[in-house]
Amino acid sequence: MSISSVQNSTATQAATGATNSSQALQNRFLTLLVTQLQNQDPLSPMDNAQITSQMAQLSTVNGIDNLNTTMNLLSSTFLSSQMLQSASLIGKNVLSAGNGMALNGTAAFGVDLPQAVDSLSVSIMDAAGNAVRTLKLGAQTAGTLPLQWDGKTDAGTQAPNGVYHFSVKASQGGNAVTATALMQDVVSSVSQNAQGVLLNLGNNGQIGLSGVKQIL
Asked: pTM to 2 decimals?
């Protein structure tokens, strides 16, 4: 007899609808152990070291089960705490990965730079993909950079309100630097699923808390 054989028996019973728990495993193991001790050959008794080893394995199984219960409780408490904290973001503007912007006189957006650059430019296009404005922003430090477009075209006229898109180009010493376009959006609500807490944005779908680059 071994703890593994009892576990295998437990798994088999679970497949047929029997209860599968550490307590049930312990009860079956102790029952088998007592039965073996009662029916062992007096001339060839069970090895004490073997019994001790099996009992240690059983204790380990119980310890793991208790640890899993504790971790599940901590995880549930942590998610509840995150939900309460995230609720404070409702109604606030955040920057997250995305290349869209809504022009209403002006438009806010952002760029995330992994390192300092000596050249940064933003190209703004209308819904049809036509170039509307190119912003030459020069040298910038690393990090999240909130930006705003005044709505003017390259010709100096006011662009009509609506949805626009933009692309980013950055370089340092003549070498291209990968910059992330950031879209500004408002947090409309907070929800939770198996992956954790999610922020529901007005136009940019759902993002996790780690997806927020800056709160405005």
From this structure: 0.64
